[in-house]
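note to self — DONT lose this again. spent like an hour looking for the file last time. sequence + predicted structure for the chain T wanted, 202 res
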Amino acid sequence: MNHRSKKIIPPEVLISGYSRGIFPMSESRDDTSCQWYSARRRGVIPMDRFKVSDNVMRLIRGERYQVQVDQRFREVMEACADRPTTWISSLLIDSYELFHEMGYAHSVEMIDREGGLTGGLYGVSLGSAFFGESMFRRGKEADKVALWHCHRILVENGFTLWDTQYYTDHLSQFGCVEISAEEYRERLEAALRKEAIFKPLD
C-alpha cells in the first residue's frame, strides 16, 4: 500500500496517544478527521478472569474455525467498520494498516471451512499492554472464539494489561471489569515497562 498518497495519523502520534491512555475515533465511516478520547472509568479484562460460555467452548473444541494471526488485518478492520454506524473511518483503517505493517497493530482472524473470513478482532500492542479496538462476526459466535484465542496469545506471550477502553454489559460476560483512571494509568505505566510480542502460538 502506498501510504504517502493517503492522509493518515502518523505512527508516532498513535504511539504517543496509546502510551498516554488515549485513543482516536471518527464520527463516521467517511469522516476525514478523528478525535482523541479517554475514559474516567476504564474497562479492562484481567488475564485470570477471562471466560467464555459453554457454547463457545464447544465451538472451540469442535474446531469449527481455523485461527490466523495478522494475515488479513485490513479485511478485519473493514469488517468491523461494516455496520450502520461506526467510528472506524477510512482514515483510521489506512492509519492502522501502516501501524500493523510496523508491528504495532494486530488481528486475530476466524476462517471458516471454505476459507472465508467469518469473524475476528484487532487491537494495538505496546510493551506488555494490548488495547482491544473492535471485533465482528459473520459466523456463529466467531467474535467470541476470536477473543478466546486472543486471550491465549496474550497470556502465553506475557502480556499484563488487556484494555477494552470502556466497560460494557456485553464485555462483562468475558470478565471485563471497570477501574478508575488513576489505577489504569498505574497499570499502563507498569505494562509499558515490560516487553511482550503479539505472535501466533505454535
